[in-house]
Design brief:
Domain Major facilitator superfamily (MFS) profile: 20-432
Distance between the termini: 8 Å
Largest sheet: none
Number of domains: 1
Main location: membrane
Number of helices: 17
CATH superfamily: MFS general substrate transporter like domains
Structural class: mainly alpha
Strand content: under 5%
Radius of gyration: 21 Å
CATH topology: Growth Hormone, Chain: A
Organism: Microbulbifer taiwanensis
InterPro entries: Atg22-like, ATG22/LtaA_families, MFS_dom, MFS_trans_sf
Mean pLDDT: 81
Membrane topology: Multi-pass membrane protein
Shape: globular
Length: 436
């Protein structure tokens, strides 16, 4: 098998301390949306405020369709978005365009009146597309803001700041919703609606370091002549047609598809699982906060651990902890166990995500990182096709929701086994030519 063409090194002067911090603070900025909107207030308001008087099954179905629509649109378009960003040298500008759309749609949610579930769902889809599309291009910028030997640490820094920033804003919004009079709101619904405006402002404000300190990477080398759109499609077709030449990256994507589905299912289903076991809503909120604040230092530390023991072993360690979480989770009886599991998840969740991102960056040509991270994000979005249904089916088949946790072990073990086929040398040492 021939070696793929040499990839371009980061542009001279594109990396540096300010660029790294500017890039990492975007994670601080947009994680507010992930925590406050996606995991926190939108699902609650969608059912209790915008779907008032509608049964929970109908409300959840509407929310499920909204989530699916946003994820599917980004998943199908991600490789094309990445290819266009590379060909036109607009990774940063396109990131900011998606972010601006997400920020505006998020803030507008506060103006949607009660009962207007369709308007809320459409704005939520727009906000989620903005969030996911910007994330695709944010990941791709990693290869241009730091040298390869620092990618693990820089990726961990981003996730760590994201956990801290999202957790701090979520804590402030929860306090306002629980004590509306103290914060000048008429009721908790008013405080929750204001959280959408505050999230938009937070996202916009902390995007400024990226705007000011991160430079636009150069365009990928064009093959042949022609209009930009034509070159974009040719570049995308070339990557798909020659993906087999990047066989290590393709193998890594398959492993990532499985184990990140397990990680994502834990994130999506933890609250529902806790409610099914009878835990109080306050306990679930506290558990989510624990994950955020433990995740801040843990993601940074885990990335450094990955540098010391090897990123592949670091991911294995994280998957092993998730397997322990699944087994313990199937037998928990008291709230303290739920909190302990939240701490365990916080210790490894960001680390697994950070090491996965930086490992993949080592396996692809840097000049086409936007395009290749389009495939990376595509796999991450399509991963939701397995985990949540499997989670529900195990509970139905065995007649007890506790068995649902055991289903996720299949994803973590399967992903780990496929990851073991990826040569460790390819993940530990990046060269200008991908070692595939």
């Amino acid at each position: 098998m021939s070696t793929p063409p040499a990839s371009s090194a980061p542009a001279p002067g594109a990396s540096g301390r300010r660029a790294i911090w500017g890039w990492a603070f975007y994670d601080w900025a947009n994680s507010a949306f992930a925590t406050v909107v996606l995991a926190g207030f939108f699902p609650l308001l969608f059912q209790d405020f915008w779907n008032a008087g509608v049964n929970a099954e109908t409300s959840n179905l509407r929310l499920g369709w909204a989530n699916a629509a946003a994820s599917l649109l980004i998943a199908l378009s991600a490789p094309l978005i990445g290819a266009f960003a590379d060909a036109a040298a607009v990774r940063k500008r396109l990131l900011l365009l998606f972010a601006a759309a997400g920020i505006l749609a998020t803030a507008l949610l506060a103006a949607v009146p009660g009962g207007a579930w369709l308007s809320a769902a459409l704005l939520f889809v727009c906000a989620t597309i903005g969030f996911l599309g910007a994330n695709l291009l944010y990941d791709a910028l990693l290869t241009s803001i730091a040298p390869p030997e620092r990618w693990h640490a820089v990726s961990g820094l981003g996730f760590g700041l994201g956990y801290l920033g999202g957790g701090l804003l979520y804590l402030a919004c929860v306090l306002a919703a629980l004590n509306p009079d103290t914060f000048g709101f008429a009721d908790s619904t008013g405080a929750a609606l204001a959280a959408f405006v505050l999230t938009g402002l937070w996202w916009a404000l902390f995007s400024l370091p990226l705007i000011l300190w991160v430079r636009e990477p150069p365009a990928a080398a064009a093959s042949g002549s022609g209009a930009l759109v034509g070159r974009t499609f040719r570049q995308l077709r070339s990557t798909i047609g020659h993906l087999y030449r990047y066989r290590t990256a393709a193998l890594f994507l398959l492993a990532y598809w499985l184990y990140i589905d397990g990680v994502g299912t834990v994130i999506r289903m933890a609250v529902a699982y806790g409610r099914a076991l009878g835990f109080e809503r306050s306990h679930l909120i506290l558990a989510l906060l624990l994950v955020q604040f433990v995740g801040f230092p843990a993601a940074i530390a885990f990335a450094h651990l990955g540098e010391r023991i090897g990123p592949q072993r670091g991911i294995y360690l994280g998957l092993a902890v998730y397997i322990v979480v699944c087994i313990w989770g199937a037998f928990i009886r008291s709230p303290w166990e739920f909190f302990a599991i939240a701490v365990l998840i916080g210790l490894v969740q960001g680390g697994v995500q950070a090491l996965s991102r930086s490992c993949y960056a080592r396996l692809i040509p840097a000049a086409r990182s936007g395009e290749f991270f389009g495939f990376y994000n595509l796999m991450g979005k399509f991963a939701a096709l397995i985990g949540p249904p499997l989670f529900g089916l195990f509970g139905s088949w065995f007649g007890d929701v506790r068995y649902s946790m055991l289903a996720l072990i299949l994803l973590f073990v399967g992903g780990g086994l496929i990851l073991s086929r990826v040569p460790g040398s390819a993940l530990n040492a990046r060269t200008d030519e991908s070692t595939q």
